[in-house]
Design a protein that fits this description.
This protein has 23 helices and no strands. With about 375 residues, it is mostly helical. Among the domains are: about 1-140, no CATH class; about 140-225, no CATH class. Helix 10 runs parallel beside helix 12 (about 195-210).
Length: about 375
């Protein structure tokens, strides 16, 4: 077996939680003996081969056979669940996929499949990432706690380098319907960028999740109302990156100035900085964000105000002062904003950035400072 496949199995074995509470050896043996009495005789030898880590070819053959036999055979499901509880890495993976093939025992199978997907993505094992996505997509009626774990994992798979992994992950998310609402922004981006045939696939998936969203723009608008604050923040940022979409979305965006999430409010402020022609209502909301209780929201609003020609000198001074903030994320945001508005007080800005670079110890913040200074060169 390839080294990376062995590593994948080790990761799954270590990370996928054992779903059976500890029991005494006597109880375990008794349960196994009872299970054998009611097990179809075709299953036990296949389970033994499936659990034989030294026989890769035999494991693959047993996997194919046991998937075909299916849960109508007595003892099929309980034997596979037992393998998930007691088996090694690949035995657990094959057992979980076999259960998923027939949408059985989701509480046992899904955690193993999620661990498999994460490990496969990390190791670049695209074949097994596709397998895990496909298996997860067979469970169309997952309980909410499992959905909360599956959707983010599949959303991560949408960022895989392999187009087929993206397509399989999208298919699984589509099967979850509205429960996959948090993936809308990423799916909308794939819809825009994918080749024509694959774009139709992503469009169909978006339609399964949000039937009213018949364009990537409408999918992003739909995501603005997600109960998850990170999804709302992602949707605002996506709209802000597309200047042509900000004005048409303004009626939906401006109420988010009162959103409970600082990330949402910060991204809204940054988006308002890109608005080509702000109206009075947008200016009022931007002024409100300049007085926000969160430092990074105020810094984003300062950047936006400079971009819109509002209170430029005072807002530039606020950004320069934030280069001494105790929070590195705030220092980083201020440095970036000064680089993007470099034409404002260039001499003072250069001096402040050089002084900040001289005392900065955080590598990521130093990089942003250097990039900002390069824009002033």
């Amino acid at each position: 077996m390839e080294t990376r496949l062995h590593e994948l199995a080790q990761i799954v074995e270590a990370q996928a939680p054992r779903t059976v509470p500890p029991a005494s050896e006597l109880i375990r043996r008794g349960a196994a003996d009872i299970a054998r009495l009611h097990m179809d005789p075709r299953i036990e030898p296949l389970i033994e081969r499936l659990g034989n880590a030294g026989d890769w070819a035999g494991q693959l053959e047993a996997w194919e056979e046991i998937r075909e036999l299916g849960p109508h055979l007595s003892g099929w499901e309980s034997a596979l669940c037992h393998l998930i509880h007691q088996g090694e890495g690949w035995a657990r993976i094959f057992a979980a996929e076999s259960l998923a093939c027939h949408a059985r025992a989701e509480t046992q199978a899904v955690p193993v499949l999620l661990a498999t997907l994460a490990a496969a993505l990390r190791l670049g094992q695209h074949d097994w990432a596709r397998m895990a996505c496909g298996a997860l997509g067979r469970f169309t009626n997952l309980a909410h706690p499992l959905i909360q774990r599956a959707v983010p994992a599949l959303k991560d798979a949408l960022s895989a380098e392999d187009l087929d992994v993206q397509a399989y992950a999208a298919l699984a998310l589509g099967n979850y319907g509205p429960q996959a609402h948090a993936a809308l922004v990423r799916l909308a981006e794939l819809w825009e960028r994918a080749p024509e045939g694959l774009a139709r696939h992503f469009a169909a998936v978006v339609g399964q999740i949000a039937p009213e969203a018949d364009s990537p723009f409408l999918a992003r608008l739909e995501a603005l109302h997600d109960p998850c604050e990170s999804t709302r923040a992602e949707a605002v940022a996506a709209l802000g990156r597309r200047r042509r979409e900000i004005a048409p979305a303004l009626d939906r965006l401006l109420p988010l100035a009162g959103d409970e999430s600082p990330d949402v409010r910060r991204n809204l402020a940054l988006a308002l900085g890109e608005l080509p022609h702000p109206d009075e209502q947008a200016r009022v909301r931007l002024a409100h964000l300049c007085r926000d209780g969160d430092t990074q929201v105020r810094l984003a609003a300062a950047y936006a105000s400079i971009r819109q020609g509002e209170d430029v000198a005072a807002q530039a001074a606020r950004l320069r002062g934030a280069l001494r903030d105790n929070c590195r994320e705030s220092r980083r945001l201020a440095a970036w904003a000064l680089g993007e508005t470099a034409q404002t007080s260039p001499w003072r800005t250069r001096k402040a950035l050089n002084q900040a670079l001289g005392r900065e110890t955080d590598p990521a913040t130093r990089q942003v400072l250097e990039q900002a200074l390069a824009k002033l060169a």
